[in-house]
Amino acid sequence: MKKIGFLSFGHWTPSPQSQTRSASDVLLQSIDLAVAAEELGADGAYFRVHHFARQLASPFPLLAAVGARTSRIEIGTGVIDMRYENPLYMAEDAGSADLISGGRLQLGVSRGSPEQVVDGYRYFGYQPREGQDHADLAREHTAVLLKVLEGEGFAEPNPRPMFPNPPGLLRLEPHSEGLRERIWWGAGTRQTAEWTARQGMNLMSSTLLSEDTGVPFHELQAEQIERFRKAWADAGHDRTPRVSVSRSIFPVVSDLDRAYFGGQGSGGDQVGFLDGGKARFGKTYAGEPDRLVEELARDEAVAAADTLLLTIPNQLGVDYCAHVLDTLLTEVAPALGWR
User: Fold this and answer.
1) d(CA 204, CA 200)
2) 292 backbone dihedrals φ, ψ, rounded to 5°
3) Strand bridging mode 208-209 / 277-281
4) Which of 46, 187, 308, 316 could pair covalently with 7 via S-S, beta carbons 3.0-4.6 A apart?
5) Where are the domains of the chain?
6) What is the CATH architecture of 3-158+171-336?
7) Which of 217, 91, 108, 216 is nearest to 154 (CA)?
């Protein structure tokens, strides 16, 4: 059995070819798609976070709204760029969204990806301290977030408060019990995956890795997952971690599917450059369900992960994205033993 959800990048554009022509469109349709996904039997609704772009940005109002409109499906991010975040304010927002959803929040965080602007986190008031780089800044903010999510008091109470305080140091409120164990780190390398394990975070691996050893993407990603789990065991954590991978998978069962994606399933991995280094990108899976079953059965990383996030073309609208999910859940997943 495997948890299957969608990952939306939340693109919007005023183009007449887009079904999401404004920020309002993409936010409201994101909620509707999460509701539809839950009705179809999917397990997760995840959203990418980008700043200074016509995409989803501040995630917590959206996550809270999705949590209020659904009852079972996991809600999450993939990922929040921690360079931009005030970790204390973030802990309050995350706690609120988690409580609204009844403890269904799965929060993916990371260093982030190439930005629309140069060092955009500086406009938010954050910059690395002397001797640090931007990756250090993200990890420092994450360490603070993880600490305050444990729920221990750390702030000296006012001796003459407006309202009575409980005894001792105060913690951030609202506190959501168990959220600390539902934090994921988006790791782009094998070494970062090992670091993630040592911090006690779940592993979120995407459709690209910012390294290339010459082996197919799914094999490199499977090695990353294996090294994560070994590092987790070596760290002695007392729970079983979770691992997700993202894939672009488009079952072709109609003329419309064929028009959109009929020519995209014949390629393989791509190798490029990201932040000045070599990176390997995973392939797009597109084709008839029987062919997808054969191809996905050979994907070692998908087999190793407990959670699969489907990157969806959100600009094609709720109905079409729900159709893609439904076809995969009913015509592909059962043949692979995922359902």
Assistant:
1) 13
2) -65, -40
3) antiparallel
4) 46
5) 3-158+171-336
6) Alpha-Beta Barrel (3.20)
7) 91
Poorest-confidence range of 80-84, 153-157, 212-216?
212-216
Residue-by-residue DSSP string for 238-297: SS---EEEEEEEEE--SHHHHHHHTTSSS---EEEEETTEEEEEPPEEEE-HHHHHHHHH
- What separation, in Å, do the N-terminal and C-terminal C-alpha atoms of the chain show? 6
Whether the model clears a pTM of 0.90, i.e. scores above it, the answer is yes
Tens of pLDDT, residues 284-324? 999 999 999 999 999 999 999 999 999 999 999 999 999 99
DSSP-assigned letter for residue 94 = H
Q: Which residues pair with 243 in a beta bridge?
A: 203
Angle at which helices 217-235 and 190-198 pack, to 10 degrees? 20
C-alpha distances (whole Å) from 133 to each of 116, 119, 138, 185 are 19, 11, 9, 18
d(CA 241, CA 307): 11
- Dihedral angle of Cα 23, 24, 27, 31, to the nearest 10 degrees: -160
User: What digits encode the pLDDT tens for the residues 17-40?
Assistant: 999 999 999 999 999 999 999 999
